[in-house]
Each structure stands twice: as C-alpha cells, then as structure tokens.
Amino acid sequence: MKFSAFDIQGKKSQPFLTTRYASTSQQHILDYVLVDHIPSLVGILKDSGLVIKFIRARSWHEYIKLLWNHSRITKEIRGSELLQELGLHVPKIHEVGFGIVPSKKHEYLGYYIMENLTPSGFQELSKLIKENAIDDAIREKIMTSVYLGLKMMRDKYIVFSDFHLDNVFSNEYGEIIWIDPGVTTYNKLNENKFKDKFNHSINRFIFYCNDRGNTLTDKETALFQSLLIPKQ
C-alpha cells in the first residue's frame, strides 16, 4: 500500500490510500478532463494516457460503507471482476485508491485508473448510434451481444443497476467492452427483490435510450423487454 495524490487542473487533490498500483509515482498529473459531473470526474493522465475516474462521495455515509466493501467505488471494482468472470470484456484496471478521512476538503470517495479504450478504436455506443456511425448489420451484432451479456447477469442474479449505452464501448467490428459496472448481487433467498431491481434496471435502460436520443428500434425494444422476469 502507498499514499497517492493528484494534480487536478492545477490543484493538489486529497491523499488516497492506494491498494493496487502499477506505477511508483506518488503524484499523478491530470492532463485533461473528459467528464465532470455530480457522481464523478473522469480524465486522462499525463504521460501514461490512461483513464482515471474519481468517484465523489455524495454523503459521509459512503465513507462508512467503505469499511464493509459496499461503497460505490467498491461496487464498480467488484462489478468489473464479476463481468470478467462471466467472460465479458472490461477495461483493465491498473490502480485503485480510497479516500482516507471524510471532510469538506476530501471531495472524492476514491478513484481507479483503467485502460484507455479510444486508441484501440473503441467509442461509446451511445455516440456511435447518435452519429449513425455503424451499419445495420454491426448494430444488430452489438445489440445482440448487449442482450446476451444482460441475460448472463440475470441468470447469475446480478443487477447492473444504472446500465445505459454509455456503459458500452464498441468498435467498427461490433466487439463490445463494458465499463463502469456498478452491480449488486442477489441470491434465491431474496429472489423477489432481485426481480424488482432487475426489471427496474431494464425498464429504466429502455426509457433512458428513448429519452436521450439513442432510440431503440421496435425489434431491439422487444429483445430487451424479453429479459423482464414475470411476476408470479
């Protein structure tokens, strides 16, 4: 383990306790920011070109959840491992760090550094659809892969609760990679809760697509609706 800090747009970040790391540097420099919104900040690191995601703590309760591995950052790291165990492709995670002391100066719950998919020709699926950058055959291949991945999660009692097409990257060949997999696992003892949560995630995904301009075709909508678990 080591302590790490970051230079974020000219300001030094809070310290982090790093439990998995690939570099010996104790301070990284953020080259530029890709996304900066309430849940997180995502950017590219200078020199390495890797992607870093800082997860913001929405309340002090989230620091407490770190103690029993139930925080949002823990769920995303574990989610990546679970999807990989299912045989799904996810970005390689190089480094993970956790915020140490909750205070007003400690903005982030933690961070992780992962593979940058863009140089390999992968882009957000939502962007590819909006820009009509894929033909019908490739789109069908991609959507079938997304469906099969969600079905595998359903069969293993896994809910990707905030799933949307920004969570899938694809290339010109229709290969896909899943990112930011904040998941929750269930078992047969709480099967009814699992059904409710899984169905909610699928319905939310379909609504999100149509609401954000990533309109699903009728065939695609029917395909994803077939994942819904009937209530007994």
From TrEMBL:
It comes from the Bacteria. This is Protein kinase domain-containing protein.
